[in-house]
Amino acid sequence: MTLAAPAVERAWTPPFPLDLAAVLGPLRRGPADPCLRIGPDGSVWRASNTAAGVATIALRRAHGEIRASAWGPGAELALAGLPDLLGARDDDTGFLAHHELIAQARRRAPGLRLGRTGQVWDVLIPAVLEQKVTGKEAWRSWRELCRRFGTPAPGAAGVSPELLFAPPTPKALLAIPDWDWHRAGVDGARRRTLLAAASVATRLERAVDLGGEAGRDLLCKVPGIGVWTAAEIAQRAWGDPDAVSVGDYHLHDAVGWALTGRDATDEEMLALLAPYAPHRQRAVRYLELTGARKPRRGPRFAGRDYRAI
User: Fold this and answer.
1) CA distance 141 to 137
2) What is the value of pTM for the model shown?
3) What is the rounded average pLDDT of the residues 89-118?
4) Domain 8-237: which topology?
5) In three state form, how does the secondary structure of 189-238 look?
C-alpha cells in the first residue's frame, strides 16, 4: 500500500497531564481492533470517518507534546479535532471523591481525561454490536464488518496496512447482504438496529451538539437503542461525564464490589454513584483503573455464536 498523499501534520502540547493510553482506551474494541492500532514504535494509529471523508491519524508523544500526522480527505478535520479527542474540552470542575478508592485512583491517574470523537456514527456501530453478547463475539463481528465493508486506511504504512480500516459508512452498511450479516455473527435484532441507525445517521450526529441527557434521548429514538447503548455512544462521541451504562452485564456488580464489597443491582449502583452527579461516568472510569471487580466464582458467560444459527 502506498501513502495516499503527503501527511498533514500538527504538534499540540496538552496544558494538563495526559495519559494517552487511558484517554484513547475506550475507543479500542479489543486487542485486534481494525480501526485503532499501536505501531511498532508505540505510535497510535486511528482510522475514522469524517464529514469530509475517511482519515487516518497517527499520534506520537515527543518531549511533552503530541505530534500528529494525518492522511486522507478527512485529514484536516481529524487534526482539528485532536485536542478534543485527547480530552481538552473535558472539565472535572466540581468532582469530589466520596470514596477513598476513587480518591486513590484519582491521585494515581492525574492524566485521565474524557476524550470525544465529535461524531456518533463510528462509535455507534460497535456499541450496538456489543448488545447482549460477549465482548469477544462483538469484537469479532466488528473486525469482520470493518475489514470487509470499511475503507482501507490511507497512509497506514506505519502499521500493517491490511489491518487498519475506517468503519463502514452508513451507505456501505445499508448495502451489506443478508448472508454477510450472518457470516459476521450479527443476529437479526442488532442488524435491524444498525440499519435503522444508518438510515438516519446524519440526523443522529446532532446528538453531539445537544450533549448530555438530551443527546442520549435523541439516540434512543432509534428502535433498538436503549439507555445502555446511548450511554456507550455518549461516553465516546462527546465525552459525557455523567453517562452511566445502566443495564451492563458486569458494571453494577463491579461498582458494588468496589464500593461496598458485595453485589449491587443497577438501582443500587445508581444510588452509590448519585453523589458524583454530574460526573458519575468519571467516577466509573476511576474505578475501572483500580481493577476492582467482582470475584469470579463460576464459569464465564459463554455467549452465543449466531453464525451457527
Assistant:
1) 6
2) 0.92
3) 96
4) Endonuclease III; domain 1 (1.10.340)
5) HHHHHHHHHHHCHHHHCHHHHHCHHHHHHHHCCCCCCCHHHHHHHHHHHC
